[in-house]
# Entry
Amino acid sequence: IKHDIEVGDGLPDLVHYSVCTKALEDAGFEVLEARDAMMDGHLGNGGEPWYMPLVPSWNPTKWPRFQFNPVMFRLMPLILRFFELIKLVPAGTVKTQ
# Structure
């Protein structure tokens, strides 16, 4: 699962925030604040849970969430292949869906 997330989001590697903080300090940066947002449970004061963008929704105005409902999950690869065919998106986009 970790590898699929890294490939789909274009990430080089997922590591604990303490590893990133140490790397920044080793590179000469002064880190003023570092935290794991997952441990907060919410994005800011009284906000939605950190995982809310990944929760499926049937509301088309909730775009990042709308694409995760069962119907769009099946349609999205077809839509992206069509967009690749007409050169609206770069080749290989469907692989990152």
Notes: The helical segments are 2-9, 17-26, 37-40, 63-66, 70-85. The two ends are 14 Å apart (CA to CA). Residues 24 and 31 are 7 Å apart (CA to CA).
